[in-house]
Amino acid sequence: MGSVGTAIAYACLIRGSAGALALFDVNAAKVRAEVLDLNHGSQFVPHCRISGSDDIAVTAGSAVVIVTAGAKQKPGQSRLDLAAANVAMAQSLTPQLLEHSPDAVILFVTNPVDIVTFAATKAVDAAPGHVFGSGTVLDSSRFRYLIAEQADLAVGNVHGLIIGEHGDSEISLWSSVSIGGVPAEQFRRDGVAVFDEQTRGRISSEVINAAYEIIAGKGATNLAIGLSTARIVEAVLGDQHRVLPVSTVQRGAYGIEGVALSLPTVVSAHGAGQVLEVPLAVSELLGLQRSAATLRDVQAALGV
Question: Where does the Lactate/malate dehydrogenase C-terminal domain lie (predicted)?
Fold first, then answer.
């Protein structure tokens, strides 16, 4: 129940994502305080039963378990720099969670989420798709927001994806961006192209650097990841078959195997399912393969 875990619980409570929330933290006083604080607002939100404990058994019987535990990213530190400590956490924690909730979908939000997801998946014998990461769902939301701002339209009119690593090697899929049904390269305002090469490059860079700017300013990213994680939870609990760019261990899409990264994936009650291979520009495909290689090198260095 650090800044991210608390934000996720708060987002789920406000959105009515679940009928019950169980909070776990090794700090008993902290988790009790968060349970009280959330329960005190119960009059103003959809009904939700909230409990919490420093005993991991509080998670027993969960449909979805969200893992945010781990070392926190510091200013100037990349997500991959966090890898060793958080991989060890995932390898030891995931079996315990599934022991208490054998049918649960386990969703990792801990960074570096792709490396942690890969390690957690390999540490257990879970059903296919039942262990996955939040991936680039938030990055894609940042991408859509910046495009909408540039187009001077509501973000709901924009469709676009970030794929690959949730980190510095991620890929902006400009070739498939749609703004009110208009491809980005054809979108004009007063006859002038809005998304020229320079603008596209700036927006892609801002997406990659967004977390660094927020961490430098307030110490952590938490509010938007809380909302985006709640959205993933709803796709699972509602069996929505929603296509989201979550991080899973790849098994052949675009010729990529043996590494966890984000691609458009059908999320349902069974967790992360079919990966959709959207058409990619040559530069995007090469970038995705470089992103996979970057992650694979880190896995090898950690012996995962």
Answer: 136-297
* Domain of residue 9, CATH code: 3.40.50.720
Instruction: Cite the annotated binding site by residue number.
Output: 25, 86, 109-111
Query: What integer pLDDT is reported at residue 259 of this predicted model?
Result: 97
170 and 290 co-located in one domain: yes
Number of domains in the chain: 2
* 292 and 150, same domain (yes or no): yes
Same domain as 183, residue 76: no
CA dihedral 264, 267, 273, 279 (to 10 degrees): -20
Residues 239 and 112 in one domain: no
- Is 166 labeled as catalytic in the residue annotation? yes
By residue range, what is the domain housing residue 275? 137-302
- pLDDT for residue 81: 75
Per residue in 126-177, pLDDT tens? 999 999 999 999 999 999 999 999 999 999 999 999 999 999 999 999 999 9
Give Cβ neighbours of residue 252 (< 8 Å, ≥ 6 apart): none
pLDDT reported for residue 90: 95
- 95 and 47 in a single domain? The answer is yes
DSSP string, 120-181: HHHHS-PPTTSEEE-TTHHHHHHHHHHHHHHHTS-GGGEE--EEB-SSTT-EE-GGG-EETT
Regarding whether 146 and 59 lie in a shared domain, the answer is no
146 plus 98 within the same structural domain: no
| Element containing residue 191 per DSSP (H, E) | none
Q: Kindly report the pTM of this predicted structure.
A: 0.95
281: which DSSP letter? -
Question: Which residues make up each annotated binding site for NAD(+)?
Answer: 25, 86, 109-111
pLDDT digits (tens, 9 = 90+) for 167-212: 999 999 999 999 999 999 999 999 999 999 999 999 999 999 999 9
Give the HSE-up count for residue 95: Cα atoms under 13 Å, Cβ half-sphere.
9
